[in-house]
Amino acid sequence: AYISKDANPVTDAAAIQAIRLIARNLRQAVALGSNLKARENMAYASLLAGMAFNNANLGYVHAMAHQLGGLYDMPHGVANAVLLP
Known about the structure:
Elements: H1 9-31, H2 36-55, H3 60-72, H4 76-83
GO molecular function, one term: alcohol dehydrogenase (NAD+) activity
Pfam families: ADH_Fe_C
InterPro entries: ADH_Fe_C, ADH_Fe_CS, Alcohol_dehydrogenase_Fe
């Protein structure tokens, strides 16, 4: 969403905050599942990321990644990374 041609200040703010929350909480949420604050922050990051990408139109790379992933049994994130410049 952050690099979408249709991004705007609202989607950028949501995407940046999601990135910050993920960077600060992902390790703890995975390593220590009982850390409810880290898990709460990851849930909030997911909400913000969803708001960002649903309002910034992800574009052709995202659409092609669905096809590539299905054809080669590739995780969606990996397919996006392969297709992005």
